Amino acid sequence: MIIAGDIGGTKTVLALYAFEAGKLKLTRQAVFPSKGPKSLEEILEKFLVDEKNLTINAGCFGVAGAVLDGKCKTTNLPWELDEHKLADFLKAKKVKLLNDLEAAAFGMLFLNPTEKVHLNPDCNNGSSGNIAVIAAGTGLGEAILFWDGEKYHPSASEGGHCDFAPTNNLEIDLFLWLRQHYPDHVSYERILSGPGLFNIFRFLTETGVEKPTEALTLRLKAEPDSSAVVSQMALANSDPAAVATLNLFVSIYGKEASNLSLKCLGTGGVFIGGGIAPKILPFMNNGKFLEGFFAKGRFLGLMKSIPIQVALNPEAPLIGASNYATRLIPS
Question: Which domains are present in the chain?
């Protein structure tokens, strides 16, 4: 038996699996609010209350936060997680903590074809090698799936906090505008995230590059999620400022995905996770993302050969954690 979890600041998803003949079979899954409990162990106790005689062989948890030496102080919760303490609590032989994007990245390897959308029609689908994983959502997550010649290993990164590098005059103006608001550091996350998308909109409209319609202005005053409003108006093609916002967003998204791919020599492909890309697929597919991704000068040929896929299944972190746990069981 295997236990796996996806631990976020809002909710914790736990699942039990039977691992037989090399295959995982889900036996039970439950969702708990993360706010309130004092520890992950408190939630695990509730989840396993009717499983007194259960023997757990291994566990793996994807968690929002940096995992160092098997320990993690969660980003948005007052929890401190420790692999050894969790193993003792579960009476399991081994427990592994993964950063949530590490878990999601690994989970993308196990998605069905219908759970992925291909963006690069002319790529070399037979390529092997490292895979770059980038995920814009509440923040910007980045990870690498390292290929050792036989199998993939997820590797964490905090690359979303790297310096934003503008590549044309409009992006230079965007950088200068952002630096007024974030004088200490302008990272890619200030652009490629939910809040970042609205930063782009504010830049375009406050500097007079674009003018929003009255309908959009009224919706922004009435509705709490400004980025969602801008995205919805852009998808409906009912506001030019919103359309310009998403076009600039996906263009820079493509450029940073390409940066990450070059840094890890991601010939095995690029996976795009996070909550934003599936919601704006028409813009991800309108050519602006690929234009940004391919804009690498002498490496144009290499970039054109790389498969790019958007992951649609939001349970990728749980899928990744459960499949990684199978590696912890001695063969």
Answer: 2-101+315-328 (3.30.420.40), 112-312 (3.40.367.20)
